[in-house]
């Protein structure tokens, strides 16, 4: 019999900024062979990657590099599960890894005047300046809220 990956183990999410060498996921596969030797399953990454490492015997997937959703929001990683029989049988699968966002970026002004001087003749409701800020985080993490602070220069 060929090994089979357990249902639901191939699609999962991880959080960006997870510390290096964290346990991200545990792959699970079984082999229905009766012989204990033939039913032992080992795992292997089929892709050359400097981002992930997969423990062959435990199926533990860990990160070897920083995970940043703003740089890469999704990983597709090819893996294999093999039994210990002769001949050795294996099955390949693709891990679909979605990277979840955390609020790790500050908003930045993409367009704004350095200062705004208000003329004495300004009319209430008149547009005095335009400001634009952006935050690459997703959803509410990337929402930008503006507030106005008032300061005055000392009289000269």
Largest sheet: 4 strands, mixed
User: How far apart are the first and last residues' alpha carbons, in Å?
Assistant: 90 Å
How many strands appear in the DSSP assignment? 11
Number of helices: 1
How would you concisely characterize the structure shown here?
The chain has one helix at residues 36-39; strands spanning 4-5, 11-15, 23-26, 29-30, 42-45, 52-54, 60-63, 74-82, 90-100, 108-111, 132-134. The longest helix has 4 residues, at 36-39. It is mainly β.
Give the key terms.
156 residues, 4-stranded mixed beta sheet, 1 helix
Describe this structure in words.
This protein is mainly beta. It has one helix at 36-39; strands spanning 4-5, 11-15, 23-26, 29-30, 42-45, 52-54, 60-63, 74-82, 90-100, 108-111, 132-134. A four-stranded mixed beta sheet has the order 2-9-8-5, with no helix packed on it. It has a three-stranded antiparallel beta sheet with strand order 3-7-6, with no helix packed on it. A hairpin with a 5-residue loop joins strand 6 and strand 7 (60-63). The protein is rod-shaped.
